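Entry 14. Ran structure prediction on the chain below.
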Amino acid sequence: MLKGDTLDLSYNKFTYESFRESRCQMEETNLFASFSTDSTSKEVSCLGNNVCTANSTSLYINCGGSKLSIEDKLYEEDLNAGGSSHFSSTDQRWGFSMTGHYLDDDQSIDSYIVTTTSTAPVNTYELYSTAQSSALSLTYYSFCMLNGSYNVSLHFAEIVFTDDKTYSSLGRRVFDIYIQGVLVEKDFDISDRAGGARKVLVTTYTVNVTTSLEIRLYWAGKGTINIPSRGVYGPLISAISIDPNFQVPQKDGHLPKHESGVSVVTVVGIVVGAICLIVLILGALWWLGYLRHGDTNEAELNGVTGTFTLRQIKAATNNFDVANKIGEGGFGSVYKGVLPDGTVIAVKQLSSKSRQGNREFLNELGMISALQHPHLVKLHGCCIEGNQLLLAYEYMENNSLARALFGPERWQLELDWPTRYRICIGIARGLAYLHEESRLKIVHRDIKATNVLLDKNLDAKISDFGLAKLDEEDNTHISTRIAGTYGYMAPEYALRGYLTDKADVYSYGIVLLEIVSGMANTVDGTKENHFILLDRAIASKNTGDLMELVDPRLDSEYDVQEVMVVTNLALHCTTVSPSERPTMSSVVSMLEGRILPRDFVVEHNLSITQMERDKMINQLEAMNASEVVNMSHPYTDTSESVVDLYPDDLYDEYLQNEYLQKRDDDGKKAVT
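Output, structure tokens:
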């Protein structure tokens, strides 16, 4: 055995005591922790733990590197090259055991110390420029330590692989970590945990130590073995730091004089004096008015989402420069901004005259910050300072679906049929998430074309959650004050305040008709208060000519079958009875072709009866203007909309004159 070539017998349970030696390394044989008493007592006998001349309370090792001083810590050097069966110790304080041969790596001599020349954080560059590695097992053992609780910090940086587009970026190093024989990390991947290669990662564990501390990194056969080069990629570590969680006594066994020599009376006097000083400072700040703005809004916002300071928002928008103003709504002004990291945002500034008010602001913030979905507008954060209420959303390059379809010609987008169909599916997925998939079941209450925004890829995202309501599973419906947009509200909600998720389904059906036809569901105020688009769709269904609804701008370049599916689905969604409307998950399935849609039957000649229509009009006209949006301006959303991104004056003038006159004329001709 003594003449063996790199023989590793570590971590065995030998019982033949006469063979037992006091050394952990004999020639090329590693005997570290190789006897049964080692695993029983949790102390490695070959280290000579019973002859400690002094106990240490901290340890810092620069694995694979030279002695290094960082802040107030002195990291000891660890330049021992190691080997496939190796143990070494330093100054009778610590040592390491290494096991494993780098097979099939085309290298004549194994190299266990890894170095890099790549950049790293300046203040710790040297600490992470080297690392100790092993093909199989790497154990650091600290002995002669004072009993107590310690924070054990393991420092990592993946300096072998890269984080670029080269072949080296495909490598993966996966290993397990044991401390005091307990598995603390399973399948540990440095790059994955650090967020990429060449990035620093420090993991800290609280450990109770009795004389000795063992840290073991073990490769369990996972990760890559041929990428980026042939060989094994076992455990790797850059540094170890061990700090006590207790007051370190002086050499005479007593606590430091400044902590043990102070009388109780002195301590009490210091504490009382400090409390009095804090009270005086807080009183002065309150008197000066600095603490008087912490109203209930701020308490309600606490922990809801990310926050920005007013200074950050001003910097992003160039102090709310008018050149960055991109819209005006009932919520207030909207500004385009750019964060320091280059993220483009849309900042909503609550107007002091806003009809939305603080309640809707908090509702919007609370709802959308709890929701994350590709088809919901992302909220980056908020700002509340004094009387300033600001929301920062992701910037949507192509504004709203309403402007793309109904806006002035210079702002309209050429939406081909595949894009429109994709928008239909996107809105449906967003609503299905709100109704059925999210942890919070939510009814939006204000689904309409102005609240569907389009990103740079023309993907649809639902916005404006200021009117949204939680739909608790135990409730059959929600009775609430009526709020929303006239022309999109379901009859049962507009008439009786009876709110379920089927109210959103009705609104979605109206939006589908708008997408197919390219026209808004405006009110014909001159003739029996009809909704021009919905009545036109029902009339076309009854005459068997649904294709007459299709937007002429599509020039017959559309899939007839898909148009029929969307139009029939829209009529199904807008039936008077809520129970007959489909769920949004089934809508998604039908649009994606996973469920065959049936030919929906319209059981009435009009969307609702004339009596119901007159009753609804009378009720709506009697409501406060802040509770419901009149459809005389169907796509400006100048009341509750939190996400109105339209420029104000020119667009409003266009809406009040050209568009409404043109659409009314077209609608009357179609109904006739």
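The first helix runs from residue 36 to 41. Will compare against last week's run tomorrow.
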